[in-house]
Design brief:
five-stranded mixed sheet, 10 helices, single chain
Length: 350
C-alpha cells in the first residue's frame, strides 16, 4: 500500500467499511454492526466485495483481505499465520472477536456512559466476550466446545443446532426469490444479498446490545447484593448451605465465582429470594445447580415434596404457607419468609 493510497483512504469521510460478498456468517455480521455503533463509523457506507482493488479504497476491512493490521484498519483472521486470541482465552478470534478486542471497551463505555478506563467497563468487556463473542469466534473457526476425545460415544438427546445465532444468521443466506440467480440482473442479486446481510447484522447487533443492557443494568449491580448475602449466609445455616437474597437478582455467576475463591467453605445448596420488591411478596427457594449451565441440582428439594402444591404440600412438608415444589425439585415457593426459611432448613438436613 502506497502512502498516497493510505492517505486518501484515511481521509475519507465518512470512512468506508469493507467486507466480502457472497455467503456470510455471524462474525462479520456482528463486526460491521459493532463498528457502526461508534460515532466515527455510524454514517459509514458498507462495501461487500472480494475485489482487492475495491477493498483497497475502504478505510476499514473486516473478514477478508488476508491481513490483520490494526494500524492499517485491516481485521481478517483467515491467514495461516493468524493466532490472536482474547486476553486469558485460548479461542482464536474471528472478525467479530477482532473488532470487539480493539473497539469493545469504547462501545461499552459509549453505551453505558461509563469511563472507558473504569473497572466496570473492563468487567463488562470480559463478560460479554466470554458469554457472547467467544462462541461466535469458535463457530467461525471450527472449534468445538469439547475435545472430540471427551465426547466419544456421546449422543445428543435432541437437535439444538437450529437455535444458535450462527444458524439463525445462516438462514439469511437463502434467497427465496422465484427466479434463479442466473436469470436475474447481477446488480439486483447483489443488492438483495446486501439487504439480507444487513438484516443479519441487525439481528446480531441488537442481540449484543440486549446482552450489554442486561449485564450493565442487572448482572453488574447484582455482584454487591450476592457478595453481601454470601458473607451473611451462616446466620441461616451454620455450615453456610443457605443463602438469602434481599431481592431477586442474577446470582449464579457471582455465587460460583465466590465459591471458587473460597474452596475451603461448604458450597451453597439453596438460594432464597422474594418474588417481588413489594412488602408481603411470596418467596422462592431454588436449588443451586451443579454447574452454571447444568439442570442437575446439588441437592434437589425433598422427593416427597416434588410436584405437590398448596395445602397438600403443607401437610407433606409439615410447613405452613407452601405454594409449590417443581416436579424435578429444583425450585419451590412459600407465601412468606418464615415458611420459606423452614423449607430450606428442613431440606438442607433431609
Amino acid at each position: 500500500m502506497t502512502e498516497e493510497t493510505a492517505a486518501k483512504r484515511f481521509k475519507s469521510s465518512p470512512p468506508i467499511i469493507g467486507t466480502h460478498n457472497g455467503h456470510f456468517h455471524a462474525d462479520e455480521a456482528l463486526a460491521v454492526y459493532l463498528l457502526r455503533l461508534l460515532p466515527t463509523y455510524s454514517p459509514s457506507q458498507l462495501v461487500r466485495t472480494r475485489d482487492p482493488a475495491l477493498l483497497e479504497t475502504c478505510h476499514t476491512v473486516v473478514d477478508v483481505g488476508g491481513e490483520y493490521s490494526p494500524t492499517n484498519h485491516r481485521y481478517d483472521h483467515h491467514q495461516r499465520t493468524f493466532t490472536t486470541t482474547f486476553p486469558q482465552h485460548s479461542t482464536k478470534l474471528s472478525s467479530a472477536g477482532l473488532i470487539y478486542l480493539h473497539f469493545g471497551k469504547a462501545i461499552i463505555a459509549q453505551h453505558t456512559k461509563l469511563s472507558e478506563e473504569s473497572s466496570e467497563v473492563s468487567i463488562l468487556w470480559e463478560k460479554l466476550y466470554a458469554d457472547f463473542v467467544e462462541a461466535l469466534d469458535a463457530h467461525d473457526n471450527g472449534i468445538s466446545v469439547y475435545d472430540a476425545k471427551d465426547t466419544e460415544g456421546l449422543q445428543k438427546r435432541f437437535a439444538d443446532g437450529g437455535i444458535n445465532l450462527g444458524s439463525l444468521v445462516g438462514d439469511f443466506n437463502t434467497n427465496y426469490d422465484d427466479e434463479s440467480p442466473q436469470d436475474q440482473n447481477p446488480k439486483e442479486v447483489q443488492r438483495a444479498e446486501d439487504e439480507r446481510f444487513l438484516a443479519a447484522s441487525t439481528l446480531m447487533g441488537t442481540t449484543f446490545l440486549r446482552k450489554l443492557d442486561y449485564y450493565f443494568h442487572a448482572w453488574l449491580p447484582a455482584r454487591g447484593v450476592v457478595h453481601e448475602s454470601y458473607n451473611a449466609r451462616k446466620q441461616y445455616d451454620a455450615q453456610g448451605r443457605i443463602m438469602v437474597l434481599k431481592r431477586s437478582v442474577p446470582w449464579k455467576d457471582h455465587l460460583y465465582s465466590l465459591e471458587a475463591s473460597n474452596p475451603e467453605e461448604k458450597v451453597v445448596q439453596y438460594v432464597l429470594y422474594p418474588e417481588g420488591p413489594h412488602e408481603g411478596a411470596k418467596w422462592r427457594i431454588q436449588a443451586v445447580s451443579v454447574t452454571r449451565d447444568s439442570f442437575e441440582s446439588r441437592k434437589p428439594l425433598p422427593e416427597a415434596w416434588r410436584g405437590v402444591r398448596d395445602e397438600r404440600l403443607d401437610e407433606v412438608a409439615g410447613i405452613q404457607g407452601c405454594v409449590f415444589v417443581h416436579a424435578s425439585g429444583f425450585i419451590g415457593g412459600n407465601k412468606n419468609w418464615e415458611g420459606i426459611k423452614q423449607m430450606a432448613q428442613t431440606a438442607v438436613e433431609n
